[in-house]
Design a protein that fits this description.
With about 150 residues, the chain is an all-alpha fold. It has a single domain, classed as Four Helix Bundle (Hemerythrin (Met), subunit A), CATH 1.20.120.450. Helices cover about 65% and strands about 5% of the residues. The protein has 6 helices and 2 strands; from the N terminus they run H-H-H-H-H-E-E-H. The chain has a two-stranded antiparallel ribbon with strand order 1-2. A hairpin with a 5-residue loop joins strand 1 and strand 2. Helix 3 runs antiparallel to helix 6.
Amino acid sequence: MKNIFEITLQNRKRLYEIVDTMPKAQLLHIPNGYRNNIWWNIAHVVVTQQLLLYKLSGLQMRVPETFIEKFKKGTVPDGSATDEEIKEIAAFLVSTAEWAEEDFKNGLFKDYNEYTTSAKITLQNVEDAIAFNMYHEGLHMGTIIALQKAIKS
């Protein structure tokens, strides 16, 4: 599990770098042929990790419910983001990855409500959720890279 947490943390640091250096207009831009933007993908990664690990374990999530509702699966970007919201999500990128590892090491995840993802993968415990989350974040990193290329075109 240590390696999975390290890979996730490195991915999150890369996402932080993108949020920290990319102009807001580019973060929010939806190129032709896409239905979301870089900002939504980054915030969605934070929210999904919280849902998969904490909510399905019956635990309190560490991000505000407003973020959950705005960026969970099935949502679409509304074309806006305040500077404060961007800063808050950016801070959650690394902290939520670190908290998950710490909470896992401390045995916080005792129960888990089995869940079948839209990719038809059934998560039976938090270890399954952590592994699936890494896959999920990889998919969104790929989308973000494609969006960056589309914006530069």
